[in-house]
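## retry 2 of 3
previous attempt timed out at serialization; input unchanged, resubmitting
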Amino acid sequence: MPAKGKHRRPKAQRLTRSIAAAGTGGAALALPLLGATGANAATGQSVPQAAVQSAATVQQTAVNTKAAEKAAAPRVYSVKAGDYLSKIAEEQKVSGGWKKLYEDNREVVGEDPSLIHPGLKLTLGKKAAAQSSESQKSSGASKSSTRSAGTTQSSAPAADSSAQSSSSGSSAAQADAAPASGFTAPVSAGVGTAYRVAGSMWSSGYHTGVDFVVPSGTPLKAVGQGTVVSAGWAGAYGNQVVIQLADGHYAQYAHLSSLSVSSGQTVTAGQQVGLSGSTGNSTGPHLHFEIRTTPDYGSDVDPVAYLRSHGVSVR
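## retry succeeded, writing output
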């Protein structure tokens, strides 16, 4: 019995040590496994975060793109009485000024950029995006396309030159042949409101000139040779031009949409001095025309009688 007991005890101890060693080995083997599992878990969490950030970036880019497209979208402007292209371009902050505004709306306005009328619809920023796209497409165009573009570009200065000529009023084509007397009518139209018509709407109690009812942008002519003594804003008269004529009388043109002459400039009969409009105290497009004995208000005489005395027929 004692011999058997002694024989069994060492086996039991060895078994215990083996189990302990196996347990230790198992624990050692388990540690890398847990580490690997942790690594996989960390990797699994980082992928969704990257995806969320990427999606947020794409969404923000789309929002920015839509905002930019909305900001660049063309706007429609309805012309009002007294408007002219340079005024609209300045007030609406058109990049490129009135020339760009005219270029974008040439088909609507027509060949003369001065002839716009109330109710006309102008598109602001119409061709900005289209021109940018066309510019990119034409960067690798053939020689024929280049020649075509050159033709288009050469026509633009011609339009500018025409506008400048209209502005200066020195072009012979703009001056109508004056009668033998050297005088002509200020505009080719009939009289609307006559001279000396009474009414409370005038500060003097009566009409100090005559009104020619013409659309905004109608060319106005110097009735005779003389010198411009005033050209600019004049309160209730809006934009006006006053010319001292050769015989000492003064011709006044009021409510103009734009001026073609400047103070001190010499003009001839029939030369363009500006364009009709509705600036100042005005109820609609027309030319208010006066003949005065001095350049000041209140020295008016009958303008129709004055023109007729110089051989000019006025309806």
